[in-house]
Structure prediction request, 309 residues.
Amino acid sequence: MELWFLGTGAGRPMKHRNVTSIALKLPDPDCSLWMFDAGEGTQHQLMRTPLKLNKLEALFVTHLHGDHTYGIPGLLSTRSYVGGNTPLQLFGPPGIREMIETALTLSSSRLDYEITYHEVSEGIVYKTERYTVEALPLEHRVPCFGYRITECESPGKLNVERLQQLGVPSGPLFGRIKKGEDVTLPDGTVVRAADVAGKPQCGRIITIAGDTKPCDNALRLAQNADLLVHEATFAAGQEEKAHLYGHSTTIEAATTARDANAKRLIMTHFSTRFVDEDLAGLEEEARTIFPESYAAHDLYHTEIPRPRG
Ligand SMILES: [Zn+2]
Ligand SMILES: [Zn+2]
Prediction:
């Protein structure tokens, strides 16, 4: 599972930093792409990565501010041109449907696929065979949601050699044992799943918060997350200004990560006042509170391993 930062800036694009978008590449067997926000120019940024737009299966929008949404109509349009013809799930706060449908309709854009719109409210907003996505409202100047992606536990590996020794024929019985079921063979032998299957592997938890002041819901979404992505629009000491605009500082992002018992924090959505050389300093500020803090830059990407145990 890989997370890519396509844009890490707040407000407006800069020469060295694009506005906000994040892509999550799901591992086998899904191999699909989920995206979170798509500010202007997101599709250009995507072209600078190995990620494939036709694999985009779901787009989660935190809020309707332009630095998170102005790239969506273009992105959806291009998806058609590059062979994306499977249905797309589009999540966002109320108004997302009107915003995107209006842009696509008035521009006479014709897509080769269906969009299913989900105007989200608090709670579980999406469930697939392997993932559950929960949304909670944050505290920003307009309705804004954070998303928590929970991967389900994966069954332990089968000891195929042992199964063969016990005379278990490959096929459906393997599947039942993998799910943790004990099975009885035709000769009456009972094969206990615990004896022939490894321990199930824990799933990953990834929290992607939108623009927000520090708030309880950000803390709830980030609880025990393997990775928390949190905005840090402002530096330490600028709390008053940050709150005035519905944003957070490095120190506040790090405090949320620490208090939520998250394993790692990646900060993004930096104010245009910061240049790339400032990022190390922002990272240092956050690390005074939460040592596993990192500042993302455009095209920064990271592997998210499965938690041990
Ligand atoms: Zn923003
Ligand atoms: Zn905003």
